[in-house]
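Human: My hope is that you can spare some time for a protein that puzzles me. I am handing you a single protein, as its sequence and its fold in token form. Could you go through the record with me and say what the backbone is doing? Take your time, and here it is.
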Amino acid sequence: MNSVNRRVTIVVALLIGGQAGCRTDVISSLDPDGLLVEAVTPTRMFGTVGGSASPVPSIRVTTESHKPVPNIPVHFIGGNNASYATNAYVVTDLNGIASPGEWRFGTRPVDAYLSVIVNGRAELSFIATLRPDVPAELFSSSKEQVAFPGETVAGPSVLVRDRFANPVKGISVEFEVVGGSGRLERSSSTSDRDGVAYAGPWVLGPELGDNLATARVPGLDIVSFSARVVDPATLTWYRADSMTVGTHSFTPIENGVTDARLGMTPFDPCLCKKQVGYFIDQQTYIWNGGQVSLNSGSYVLDGSTLSLSNWTTAGTVDRGRLSIERPDPEWGFPVTWIYKEISSTPP
């Protein structure tokens, strides 16, 4: 072969299914020294996070006449932090074969790459699409709730995760009411692409006290959920009286709020000690010319501050007036709500 032909690179690729029982991929190239490099194991495969490739990637180096060439330096490089070769630097054996010993996968379900450098030149790559491991835990994504008898609250929701906390899709989760006489919309649900399985709305029973439910997957710890049913007559009710932003004060109606009330179980009036109790947040807004009634949330008092949804804000009560500062998601800045105690029980 003359020097011109020796500098011609020839790439031949045959991509034939990489699953068990299928023919092996053959990807080859002719380097400037006249060496033919080919993959002798599939170049595309599936794998499991935290596992290793099977079969182990291997390449063969031969002459143009397909004679094996030993002692050729080969470097296997794992890509995108998702994998690594246990023997990154090797040389071809008597049969011209080189392997990294083991191709270990990372812990995230992404595409892992293994580049092959032969005699200092990049020749080909192996690609493994990584999937999550088997389910290892159920993680509750529901908060403790409180409502009135027969009301509907958000039902149990869980996140199915593997041992690396990756969400696992397609897992059947069984839900069951084990306390109270309420009911769930669904007794089973399959985890979605985010690993979430949801039982749907939870209609609570008519009796006061705790309603209990569970979520289970065989082989994993059971997750429990509770929702407290309270008597509205036992709550102290407050109605929104004004809203303050900085030095400006507005009536609720000026901001489209026709009515807003909080119903609270007994608590320390200064809200400065650890609280254990519940409150109901009810609001009615003017929206698109009409009124929309909302139960903005039923929350648990358990701490030195009032916990409003995902917000934690300080609150004070002074002579029947309740003051709570809470971020407003539409306005983008905190609003101080002032509530006045009322004697009548809201419907």
Summary: The first strand starts at residue 11 and ends at 14. Confidence is low (pLDDT under 50) at residues 1-27, 301-312. The helical segments are 3-6.
